[in-house]
Amino acid sequence: MSFITSLSGLKAAQTDLATVSNNIANSNSTGFKKSKANFGDLFASAPTQSTRSVAGQGVRLTGIIQQFTQGSLNTTDRTLDLAIAGDGFFVVEGPAPRQVQSYTRNGSFSVNVNREVVDNIGNKVQMLPVDANGQVTGNTQADMFDFVLPQNDPNDATAVLSNITIGDEGVVTATFSNGSSTRLGAIAMASFAAAEGLRPIGDAHWQATGISGTALLNQAGNGPLGTVRSGTLEAANIDLTEELVSLIAAQRNFQANAQALETANTLTQTIVNLQV
């Protein structure tokens, strides 16, 4: 039994090491959220058996939990570099034909050849329609549309786009060479009842699950969504000192369980030799 107990400890320590190592490896990944491995003890006994005479049977992994705490905000010189000061997520849509929606905290956006604003893996950033005052007029899945930069003023074909600004509430305003301006919409933001239940798919992107609940859409500045900071990127929420301490602790746990396994092997071998 001690072999199984020690083996479960080795596996747990290995999982802890892998989780901490992944956090450290992504310390420079924009919008990355760290994870923590949680464990629980294993115990079993018969209903009529006294638990005072039964030892535990080891440890098991109860879950690797993502921690969506705020990362530090670093200033850049690009308008399309966006960060969220709050709990919201940017909504992006994958390429046709699947057009799968996902959610990200990595606001390092750029413009492709079709003048569509896309994220670091080519997904199109989604927007919501706004009125003349910059307030969202629709916040459902059907209301969302792709963030596309206009080339000319829709009311004057000779006026070209000269500048865009993005406010704290995510409202995008385009200014043209003739001095006119128009609101293109608001960056679509999503929140979830249980963000820890989101399914990570890599590159600081997540998908909704039955555990996380469906996305609640709105513009920044509403509820827990927080505000949008243009010219800023969110760093990974990693404290390297804390992670290195956790790495040392996981290593010690692995070594201790390996020693317990070796001790159990020595005891078993001694018993076998006595019987011979």
Automatic annotation (TrEMBL):
Its main location: other. Residues 5-33 form the Flagellar basal body rod protein N-terminal domain. It is found in: Bacterial flagellum basal body. Residues 230-274 form the Flagellar basal-body/hook protein C-terminal domain. Coiled coil: none annotated. Keywords: Bacterial flagellum, Cell projection, Cilium, Flagellum. GO terms for cellular component: bacterial-type flagellum basal body; bacterial-type flagellum hook; cytosol. Residues 83-174 form the Flagellar hook protein FlgE/F/G-like D1 domain. Pfam families: Flg_bb_rod, Flg_bbr_C, LlgE_F_G_D1. GO terms for biological process: bacterial-type flagellum-dependent swarming motility. The keyword Iron does not apply. InterPro entries: Flag_bb_rod_N (IPR001444), Flagellar_basal_body_rod_CS (IPR019776), Flagellar_FlgE/F/G (IPR020013), Flg_bb/hook_C_dom (IPR010930), FlgE/F/G-like (IPR037925), LlgE_F_G-like_D1 (IPR053967). Transmembrane segments: none annotated. Belongs to the flagella basal body rod proteins family. A flexible structure which links the flagellar filament to the drive apparatus in the basal body. This is Flagellar hook protein FlgE. It comes from Blastomonas natatoria.
